[in-house]
Amino acid sequence: MTSETLSSISSAGPGIASRRRRPSRLINSLQHNKMALLSLFLLGLLVIASLAAPYIAPFDPEAVDLSNRAKPPFWADGADPNFILGTDMLGRDVLAWLLYGGRISLFVGFTSVAVAGLAGTMLGLLAGYYQGVVDNVIMRLVDIQLSFPVMLLAVSVLAVLGSGLTNIILVLGIVGWATYVRVVRAETMTLRAQEFVEAATATGVRPYRIILRHIVPNLVASVIVIASFSVGTNILAESALSFLGLGTEPTVPSWGRMLATGKEHLYRAPWLAIFPGLTLLLTVLSINIVGDWLRDYLDPRMNS
Q: Helices 255-263 and 271-298 sit at what angle, rounded to 10 degrees?
């Protein structure tokens, strides 16, 4: 095999990475999946509403007004039309808390996934490409990580570090990296045995260029799918930690904090738990539906 042939193979790469997906195919895929389209719309609406919370929230979420405590939603008897979704036991507007709480939940969900995805992908690439001692060390760390229940580990770490937004992101990033390592390692080992990688190695291409140019582009689809499902999981985890009092500070709006407050007044003011619960349900469900659609859309077996 000549050097010219090796160079052509090494620059070609597999069909998955080189296939250009036209916008028309993306639109056509969404048109055939109404649930994914609706979920994307709901997520987009939620993101816009959360980002624009300071401009569209009717009241300051931290403003306490005991004269308006426990006001029901606008359709119930005794409601105040100024408080569309009612107020809590301190007279704070529930709608404002939902909007500002969305900012916290979405920020934690996406940021923690970015931390876990970046760390897990890098370690998975190292383990899968170099193998040997590097692979053994990284995979033993993965085994140790996976031997602990996720929430138990998160609660234990936060009990030591203390609550706070930064600590939550770090903890969720720490407990989530192992999944990326296992998937990325397996695919990297498969890609490393392909002819286009062997050709690149034979022509003297340095390992970091092979990883960045030939292996990483073929891992993007798998990483995106894992990340899409992980966002919903991390949003639920942040809400669970806030519910337990290990999340954000008590004065910081959070869906989990709203649920913790609502359970104490479930019979007297059920809307305090119903609204954040429904919002959390719709958000995570929409993210999972979009993740399921992404898995099908990015699967090369579905695009042949």
A: 140
DSSP secondary structure, 26-75, as one string: HHHHHHT-HHHHHHHHHHHHHHHHHHTHHHH-SS-TT---GGGTTPPPTT
What is the separation of C-alpha 299 from the centre of its chain, rounded to a whole number of angstroms?
20
Judged by DSSP in three states, 93 sits in strand
pLDDT for the residue numbered 111: 93
pLDDT of residue 140: 92
Instruction: State the pLDDT at residue 48.
Output: 92
Report the distance separating Cα 11 and Cα 3, nearest Å: 12
- CB–CB of 69/91 below 8 Å? yes
Cα 200 vs. chain centroid, distance in angstroms? Answer: 35
Give which of 270, 242, 273, 277 is closest to 256, Cα–Cα: 242
Closest CA to 117 of 224, 215, 239: 224
- The pTM assigned to this predicted structure is 0.82
pLDDT tens digits, residue range 274-298? 999 999 999 999 999 988 888 888 7
| Residues 6 or more apart in contact with residue 41 via CB below 8 angstroms | none
Residue closest to 197 by CA, chosen among 211, 183, 180: 211
Cα distance between residue 148 and residue 139, in whole Å: 15
Length of the chain equals 304
Which residues are CB-contacts of 91 (< 8 A; sequence separation ≥ 6)?
Answer: 63, 64, 65, 66, 67, 68, 69, 71
Over residues 200-227, the mean pLDDT reads 86
List, in order of start, the domains of the chain with CATH numbers.
107-304 (1.10.3720.10)
Torsions phi, psi for 87 (to 5 deg)? -130, 165
Please classify residue 152 by burial: count the beta carbons closer than 10 Å to its beta carbon, then call 0-12 exposed, 13-18 middle and 19+ buried.
exposed
Per-residue model confidence as pLDDT tens digits over 58-108: 888 888 888 888 888 888 887 788 888 888 888 888 898 999 988 888 999
pLDDT surpasses 70 at 159: yes
